[in-house]
Amino acid sequence: MLAGMLLLALSGPVWAGAAETWAAQYDARLTQAAGNDPSGAIAVYETLLAQMPNTDTMRGDVLYWLGRARWSAGDSQGARQSLESALEYRASKRRARVLLGRLAVAEKAIRSVPHKSDFRINAGPWVRGWERGQETDLTVDDGLGGGVLSWKTELVNRLDDFIIMGLDTDGDKVTQLSFRVQTDTVETHLRILVEDEEGQRWTAPLQIVEVGKWSQVRLQLATVMPAEAPAAEGRSLDLSAVHRVILRDVTAYHTQDRGKNTIFIDDFEIR
Length: 271
What we know:
- By secondary structure, the protein is an alpha+beta fold.
- It folds into 2 domains: 2-107, Alpha Horseshoe (Serine Threonine Protein Phosphatase 5, Tetratricopeptide repeat), CATH 1.25.40.10; 115-270, Galactose-binding domain-like (Jelly Rolls).
- 30% of the residues lie in helices and 27% in strands.
- It is built from 6 helices and 13 strands.
- The strands form 2 sheets. Strands 2, 5, 7, 8, 9, 11 and 12 form a 7-stranded antiparallel β-sheet that branches. Strands 1, 3, 4, 6, 10 and 13 form a 6-stranded antiparallel β-sheet that branches.
- The longest helix is centred in the middle third of the chain and has 18 residues, at 90-107.
- The radius of gyration is 22 Å and the shape is globular.
């Protein structure tokens, strides 16, 4: 069926409209879901885009799925280009931002341990969370005696925030992490989450971060507890399967303060 839809798209000299777009896109997505070679789906999406006017409301959706297919094919640069184009369309903006964030986590993932980030040049493996804010909220700041990671966030009722990093250590055990942290405006509550290769999350005790004063955080990963009981009840984290580390700012749930805040992180090390 995919081949038939592709021939239809290729043979049509005039843009056929939404029904044909939906049918071709749906068929290509079935091919992706089945785990087949994504090249056929990519060909369909690219052909559709070549025929669709830029003002078509479905164009963002096609760009998003093209980005997914290109990533599946190992073309991260092409995936990024498609997803960045999808950001221009309201219907696909949120999904495209999520996938761009996950792509960045994969691209910047730590490949070997031990690893240390001193943030003299860039944000290292860290990626701004995609649920809120902008990518520019996570930068390197030279204002605290040298390069530090600066994470701009905002306290809003019933909303938290996060930054995330990935690991792809080929089965090497990850046993501990450490970093220094301070905040500039509001005493901050940070939750450290560790995610394994199966997507199971594990949590550490809440970290209280003081204003204008460095706090040292050290965490032995063997001590983390399941974050989602009872699904993981009785299990412990497989230290050879650590896949992601998340710093989640949950301050809004612990204080009446609201407004902008900046969290500074330095000397991050994982081993």
